[in-house]
Amino acid sequence: MSYGPYKLASFETDKQFVLEKNDKWYGYTDKKHEGQYQTTKVVYQIVADHNTQLQLFNQGKLDSVGLTADDMAKYKMSDYLLQTDQTYTFRWIFATDLEALKALEVEANDGSNKRVLSYDDFRKAISYSMDRAKFCTEATSAYKPAFVLLNSLYYYNIAEDTNSIYRNTKEAKQAILDVYGVKYDENTDLDAEVAKITGYDVEEAKALFQSVYEQAKKDGNYEDGQAIVIRCCASAASDLSAEDKTQETLMNEFVDAATKGTGFEGKIKFVFESGRTDRYGDVASGKIEMIRGAWGGAAFYPFNAMRCYTDAEYAGTIHESCGWDPTVNTIDITYDFDKDGTAETVTDTYYNWSMAIAAGGKLSADMSARLYVLAAVESAVVKEFQCIPWASETACSLYSMKQEMGTTQYNIMYGYGGIRHMTYNYTDAEWEKFVAEEGGTLSYE
To answer: 3-class SS at 11?
Structure first.
């Protein structure tokens, strides 16, 4: 009776497994679960091909299906669409060490330039060239534009305050404004200013590209007319997906527009590839100049999550480590750490700051200081432009007309209510009859 509402009835490797109602479970008779767990049997099918998944779903043979970017044009207005925010922030991650980039030029042996990636303002210009709203709409399955590292799913004090969303704090809002150079004071409407942030400024990108063009020529790191080829490993998959190719096209469109009238006009090209089994390790060690990657998880521990960018022991590999060292590079943070009414400026490494606010760190008992430092470190990491945040992942899916979710408002702690709160509009027999009356194919558009 203590084993839960369902039991494993069958299991076939790479095909399906089935859960059936466990009649002995205490919850079916304790009168505390009335109307819940209406599902009596769950059949999990292994269907690898996405087109087959969609076909089965539209035939009423699956009760949910995940969607890709290509599907969204058809289903984005569906009454049965669920857009589920994820903790993962997608980023372009760069190798920026000058010697590593020179080595990559030698390896390519095509006369192209890669060493311009060592200039912070060059990568900053790429960031400002991106129309994130257009990129997310056209080249992802409804991801949301991102401008910093942590999204709205991160809670800084979940044990005591279920509304303690980090992104809603004054400190986190100021971090976004700091990244994009927006001035503010105690009278600034932070919400209004944050709402204006798009990360997209073609004129600023042009100014930055031209500045780097002139400086790189002066430094002997660029020759007039030289092509700049930036390879980007998008995934470990054997081939690029249609979504990958759309992203490649858009990135080239963005940089073409942002280099018009500059010394780099028509010279920069992104070339996407796939198949690297360790693209994160490869970019960190300078074996490729750029990758697409994402960090996420630890939604209730944002202070520890920041260590993904600053602590090699915590993260395994700091992806953004080819060109800077968080155990050496420093941040100046001005704050009243002693609580004596006087702010002081303290200089320390990225690593030490992140350890100070992590669980057990020297600032871990002071929530206001922790939030201030977390925001300062997040802002500083982005302003290094070793990585460019561009989207928060959203998992889009359709649910069947057969069922009703407990809620369609996602919450990271209870999702949509799960099987526990799922109800049904049809019995299995009624459903089969309904699908047949619809000609065997349903419309979810």
So the answer is: strand
